[in-house]
Specification:
By secondary structure, this protein is of the alpha/beta class. The protein has helices at about 5-10, 30-35, 50-65, 80-90, 105-110, 125-130, 155-165, 175-185, 195-200, 205-215, 240-245, 250-270, 270-285, 290-295, 300-305, 330-355; strands spanning about 20, 40-45, 70-75, 95, 115-120, 135-140, 145, 170, 190-195, 220-225, 230-235. α12 (about 250-270) packs across α15 (about 300-305) and α13 crosses α14 (about 290-295).
Length: about 350
């Protein structure tokens, strides 16, 4: 296959302008390496594991591929600086962020030659991180899975492209070569996909969970704030439907949230003072009340219940709206090859359409 060159591929050294997002409990070493070997940019998720486990994950990816890859960090994590230093120490090519960290963390990574790519959901946030020195920015429209905004990608993307002069990665609603060409036409330098890479044979998500995604139609997702107080797009699982029908969270939800906070603290190896500091950061950045901060602890553990344990009925399954268009599980290599081939055919067709006699 012929490489598709953009500012993003040149920046990070991959063959194709395709990014696999760092999905908690999903983007482990296997999926990350398979994506990298296919010529795209794989991102190892680290927000739901300890720093030591993150380092082991980096080593596991290195054992499987010699291609560049990235690691996703949570900007509000109490040990984000130590994690950033670990990325530098282990020669990771890209650091992506679910929420931007303090500015000096950007500098620490950039000074070491690590490409910094924060995720944003609004033009003003893109302008802010660009001013801080971000090397590229990932912008997700409302079609995307997990925490998301209301503006669709087709409107948000051109806003951001016009506002910043760094490479822009488009996320939300992408799954094929036609979408890649559309994003490039808007001025993006790559597309990022989560749900599409989750639904591959290289993904370690349990088969029962994958089937739930494959069975979902175009109305199979919903955006709700009942899970953690912040709007996020998820599959319409029985648990989610009950939360929506039940109205605002009551005392049981608070108890569940406290338990989830304890579980997450153990998973990431944080101390209670660190957990409190992260809660304060969440409260500031997301404009949450204390009840919302408590509820925010639900998300990682509810996702773990679904994604890792395969308990679809009681878990939360973050999903892009695009799941309604996916009906099979190719390997990452097959998926990337198909997208690139379709993008080439689409560009050729458009060229023929625009040709003059």
């Amino acid at each position: 296959m012929r490489a598709l060159r953009t500012r993003l591929t040149e920046l990070v050294g991959v063959r194709y302008p395709i990014v696999q997002t760092g999905m908690g409990w999903v983007s482990g070493p296997e999926l990350t390496a398979a994506t990298a070997n296919a010529g795209a940019l794989g991102i190892l998720a680290s927000g739901t594991i300890s720093r030591a486990e993150m380092v082991e994950g980096i080593r596991a990816v290195r054992e499987r591929t010699g291609a560049p890859f990235g690691v996703n960090l949570v900007g509000t994590a109490p040990d984000v600086e130590e994690r950033a230093r670990a990325l530098v120490e282990h020669g990771v090519a890209v650091a992506s962020f679910a929420m931007a960290p303090k500015r000096h963390v950007f500098g620490l990574l950039k000074d070491a030659g690590v490409v910094v790519v924060p995720s944003v959901g609004a033009r003003r946030h893109a302008e802010k991180v660009a001013a801080w020195g971000a090397d590229a920015v990932l912008v997700q429209g409302g079609e995307g899975g997990g925490h998301t905004g209301r503006v669709p990608t087709s409107l948000l993307l051109p806003q951001v492209v016009d506002a910043v002069d760094i490479p822009v990665i488009a996320a939300g609603g992408f799954f094929d070569g036609r979408g890649l060409v559309a994003a490039l036409a808007y001025g993006a330098d790559a597309v990022a996909m989560g749900t599409r890479f989750l639904l591959t044979s290289d993904s370690t998500v349990p088969p029962r969970v994958k089937q739930a995604y494959l069975d979902a139609g175009m109305d199979g997702t919903v955006v709700t704030d009942r899970i953690d107080g912040v709007p996020q797009r998820v599959l319409r699982t029985p648990m989610v439907e009950r939360l929506i029908a039940g109205g605002r969270p009551g005392p049981r939800a608070v108890v569940r949230s406290v338990r989830s906070a304890v579980q997450l603290k153990r998973a990431v190896g944080a101390s209670w003072p660190e957990v409190v500091r992260q809660g304060l950061a969440l409260r500031r950045r997301r404009d949450l009340g204390w009840a919302g901060v408590l509820m925010a602890a639900n998300t990682p553990m509810m996702i773990r219940t679904g994604m890792v344990e395969g308990r679809v009925e009681v878990g939360s399954l973050a999903s892009g709206q695009v799941t309604g268009l996916i009906d099979e599980l190719p390997s990452c290599a097959e998926l990337v090859e198909r997208i690139v081939a379709e993008a080439g055919a689409t560009l050729a067709r458009l060229g023929a359409t625009g040709a003059t006699p």
